[in-house]
């Protein structure tokens, strides 16, 4: 606390990202980073970039990147927004669309950053519990509201909802913006991007951080009809004209161009995820059905907090949340086959497993 802080800042509880410790030989499975390097074209872009160009400002409209993202989905560049990571895209979307007199509807258990934005922007919210199997049922999202947001697949559960259910929600809920956060969609879920042309109130956010191995570059994006994208541009241009630097714009384009490499990485992670799920289940874990690059698992005999500490003592870092209802679970990022084998071997050596 400081007397110099604005009053609204005194009570903020910021988001806590997973730790990035400097421990030799650490197997890092705590922040859903991709274990594989970005596409070779990204290395090429960085290696051949002429630093002299940094004299100039980058393209404030990111036209080439928007064009590439639009082409990828058969949309127009006016239907694409890009930002400094999808966290920024989400923050701008909260500012642009969700500060309404009606409450925002969102899952009780989801990406915890949503609650940080809710507090930051003073938004009234109604949290809707997950079902006993940790799934989201969009039929629960009823009544007048100032917007709806959920992650699909959801985090940290990894469970996805089918596109048909999102379609049904959008047919019913036409008077407020529906944001679908698809940070993990490339690992096996159905994207709502296919519905953008049909529904003017749908915004779909995605990121290069997970499936394109570019968490360190900070590139996120959103698809929506031009009217929504315009709203985001208004807020963005009232805040920071240049959220994406030159290297980020070029690297994202290079990553997007190499579809073969992208598909290989995603397929490999999906295969390793399924292997990991089988192994954890054999050890007695309950593993939720995941369409992401992580699994969310609990063990009936050993508490999540204890398992996290045991793994950490063995230089394997996983994420544990203290939130009631999920505090017995571990969120385990899918790494390489070797890393996951090490995780399973380590767990097998636990005296109670
Ligand atoms: C990782 C993540 C994001 C943000 O990713 P960026 O790195 O900011 O693009 C957004 N939503 C969910 C659910 C995430 O897990």
TrEMBL record:
Into which family does the record put it? Belongs to the class-II pyridoxal-phosphate-dependent aminotransferase family. Histidinol-phosphate aminotransferase subfamily.
Give the source species. Marinobacterium iners DSM 11526
Picking any one GO biological process from the record gives: L-histidine biosynthetic process
N6-(pyridoxal phosphate)lysine is carried by which residues?
210
Q: Which gene is this protein's source?
A: hisC
- What does the subunit comment say? Homodimer.
Which cofactors? Answer: pyridoxal 5'-phosphate
Q: What is this protein called?
A: Histidinol-phosphate aminotransferase
Q: Which CDD domains match?
A: AAT_like
**EC number from the UniProt entry:** 2.6.1.9
* A single MF term (Gene Ontology): histidinol-phosphate transaminase activity
Keyword line: Amino-acid biosynthesis, Aminotransferase, Histidine biosynthesis, Pyridoxal phosphate, Transferase
